[in-house]
Amino acid sequence: MMLIHRPQLIDEMEGAARWRFLLILMIAAMITLVGRAVDLQVLDRQFLKHQGDMRHVGVVPVPAHRGRIIDRNGELLAISTPVKSVWVNPKELDASEQELKALGDVLGLSVKEVHKRVGDPSRGFAYVKRRISPELADQAIALGLTGVYADREYRRYYPAAEVTSHLLGFTNIDDRGQEGMELTYNDWLKGVQGSKRIIRDGKRRIIEDVENVKPPAPGKDLVLSVDQRLQYLAYRELKKAVLQHKARSASLVLLDAENGEVLAMVNQPSFNPNSRIRLNGSVSRNRAITDVFEPGSTIKPFAVACALELGRVRPDTIIDTTPGQMHVGRNLVRDVHNYGVLDVAHILQKSSNVGVTKIALSLPSSKFWAFYNNLGFGQPLDTGFPGETSGSLSAHQGWNSFEQATLSFGYGLSTSTLQLGRAYLALANDGVMPMVGLLKRDKPAESHRIMSAKTAVSVRTMLERVVTREGTALKASVPGFRVAGKTGTVKKTGARGYEDSIYMSLFAGMAPASNPKLVMVVAIDEPSAGEYYGGAVAAPVFSSVMEGALRLLNIEPDQEESPILITAHQDGAI
Amino acid sequence: MRRLLALVLIVVVFALAVVYTKYRSRMLFAEIQRLEQELDAYEVEWGQLQLEQNTWAEHSRIERLARSRLGMVLPQRELIIYVKP
User: Fold this and answer.
1) Catalytic annotation on A195?
2) Which of A313, A370, A556, B63 has a CB 3.0–4.6 Å from the CB of A307, allowing a cystine?
3) By CA distance, what is B40's nearest residue in A?
């Protein structure tokens, strides 16, 4: 029995040792596990959680709405509407030929085009079609192909298209301003992108929006000073004139005489900002602000105003312009005809170069220069418009007498259409020149007195006589209104100095002359259909646009009605 | 012992409250999402309506219709009588 029991005892003893060993092993394993768990859950928690989030939680941008651009009356000039862009992840895309064809059909693409866009499997992102209507994009998504997504974007529309294209400019495909007001006021118009947190699944598809991190802030609306109605009218008339006279280009600006706001600004040639396929600088430039020319005779009123202001002449001072030409230094100044003896008013009416030269040469050059300089020639416009030019006016220290003479009839200095318009504001506004601006103003603009009210009124009265049968610009007249203005026919410079048969036709004027409300400058470059005088090419545009503008703005006629009433009665009697 | 029980009870209540709030916030967020989509749709429609209104009210079109369909003309200067206040 003992023999039998003994080994059992030993077995039990051995069993207990094993048991203990196992127990220790298991406890050690458990401690390891718990330790690891503590390590993961407590010590490394931050790191691991972050890594996990990186794989599942993402922050995606939410595009913001770009502000609208509206005209002074609230008419829409540019608006962003939501559209969708369809894109694929070629790595995930696993679609049969038929499915790709269906996708192409919905988006209006051929199978070949679809292949070209999504064919490269090494890429993780490829646009299939950008900026399509949301419904269309939803249809494409509804096909249920893996790896096909749609994102929201905005597309800019310009309802007035060509009519406002130069002024507004345009945005690029990422809704950022590239030209014009869109560029100048990009920061004002653009919204601030928001962001939201999303959860992705293992295939990086978005399965849930978790929260808005930052809501998108929409951009602000921009109110321009232009009046859409006048803009349209000016565009139509200018285009008509360019076609009729086979001109190379043209610009027109219409300004509010009292506070310098730009009411219309159009150029030819133009472009459609909604579909710009072939676009180059020659059509997209806002010539009225970016291009300069020599103002020619349109500057003469200022030479006369300077002489009046300095008391060198009076409106009835007699000046002899015979024989219609004169030597200044080694150069010759010529008139079209020999006008004989003229007073100052008639010098402007007939646009006599000799007469105005005689007046200018009687002025001290520093005063003459200061007067032009104050009128803003060679000075920036400060509109902030991209590509804005200041024109040029040379310093008077270097002037010889011929240079002083040429400045009096508008050569040797350069100006943009808008700059010339700004200078005319001083005449229209009784000697006070307001700053010009492209945004609607709530309060009167900063302005400077350039000349006395007496001088301004006196020059204006003289300019009224230009728009008569005896003057150079009868065609600028507007029925019912008194119009004051000045024509200009400028020889352009070519490779060999001033060309004989290339001209720029100008007209600058204001109405109603008794108390001007509107100032307009029309510049038509290289009319080549025969006529080229400012009074024949530019003045009719002034007349038709001004007539419409005065009517649209409800401005009261200031012309004596009697002569017209009499004719009307006579007609009635007969 | 009783205090311990009370504490456990409070913890359970708060745990449930957390779950509930989380659930509520999920629901509300889903609601926001839905409303945002609705807003988007309206935004699209509004933009299109603005464009449409603009197209219909285009000056060239109004002028053409006024002249052709309504037979309107610009009155001559002689035909206008100005009423002065």
Assistant:
1) no
2) A313
3) A82
